[in-house]
Amino acid sequence: MTKIQIRKAAGTWVVRSGGAVLGESSNALELSEGDLAPVIYFPRGDIATAFLDRSDKTTHCAGKGDASYYSIVNKSSVTENAVWSYEDPIAAVAEIKDHLAFVTGDTVKVEQI
């Protein structure tokens, strides 16, 4: 199994969708997994969850557990399954519980500020 490393992400991070700021955090976590690009996990309390709508999608990762997905809904668009969360992660990655990660792309940006 690929080694997973979690550390506090340096600095302050922001996530934007459709021009709106969904959240900003200086308590984000950075998760590194093998050769994959690091992923920033935001504390749930730092995200405007009113923009999130739980979807039916779920996935399973042997190293993290079962992920639940959310779509981002704002005035101009819906970005399907753009957010995921391990609500009951396996013990080895317990730090990511109550955190949200984002699928970045044209409509969703995660940046250090």
TrEMBL record:
Pfam families (UniProt xref): NTP_transf_9 (PF04248)
InterPro entries associated with the record: DUF427, DUF427_sf
Top-level taxon in the UniProt lineage: Bacteria
Residue ranges of every copy of the DUF427 domain listed in the record: 14-104
Name by which UniProt lists this protein: DUF427 domain-containing protein
Organism from which the protein derives: Phaeobacter piscinae
Lineage, broadest ranks: Bacteria, Pseudomonadati, Pseudomonadota, Alphaproteobacteria, Rhodobacterales
